[in-house]
Structure to design on (168 residues):
């Protein structure tokens, strides 16, 4: 008597393992988990910038101006995302996805008393903290002349934080 598996038994085992692997991938949805992780990084990054902006405000009594490409503009110098902003941040964060960026906007009419920070959350309406049911934040669409476009983030600017005196 020979010991071992028959071809049919091996095929059944492979089929069962395939069904289990498919079920695990369906439940875990790795792409959605990556999007969720990127969105969490964006929120944390904007929170860090927000804290640094509040420190800057305490020191100067105003928030930095925004450049024409919606970055920090201080003393006639644009501070790009990913560069140092000492002593407030050793490095301004960048968006975790290539082709996307954060948007900083301080309306000239606010005289440095208001700012908005925007990002594009990949999960859109699936995220409870997203603006306007996953559409562009209301403040960006009503910003008027000089305000960033609703897609300045490299996608729909559907998440925002702002100075304490306004709502994104």
């Amino acid at each position: 008597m020979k010991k071992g598996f028959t071809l049919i038994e091996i095929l059944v085992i492979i089929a069962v393992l395939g069904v289990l692997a498919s079920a695990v991938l369906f439940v875990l949805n790795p792409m959605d988990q990556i999007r969720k992780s990127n969105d969490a990084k964006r929120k944390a990054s904007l929170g860090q910038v927000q804290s640094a902006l509040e420190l800057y405000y305490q020191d100067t009594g105003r928030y930095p101006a925004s450049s024409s490409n919606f970055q920090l503009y201080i003393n006639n110098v644009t501070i790009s995302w990913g560069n140092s902003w000492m002593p407030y941040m050793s490095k301004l964060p960048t968006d975790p996805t290539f082709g996307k960026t954060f948007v900083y906007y301080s309306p000239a009419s606010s005289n440095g008393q208001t700012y908005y920070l925007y990002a594009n959350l990949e999960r859109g309406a699936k995220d409870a903290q997203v603006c306007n049911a996953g559409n562009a934040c209301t403040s960006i669409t009503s910003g008027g002349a000089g305000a960033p476009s609703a897609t300045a983030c490299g996608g729909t600017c559907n998440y925002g934080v702002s100075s304490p005196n306004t709502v994104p």
Q: What stands out?
A: The chain has a mean pLDDT of 91. Strands lie at 65-66, 72-74, 77-79, 103-105, 116-119, 159-162.
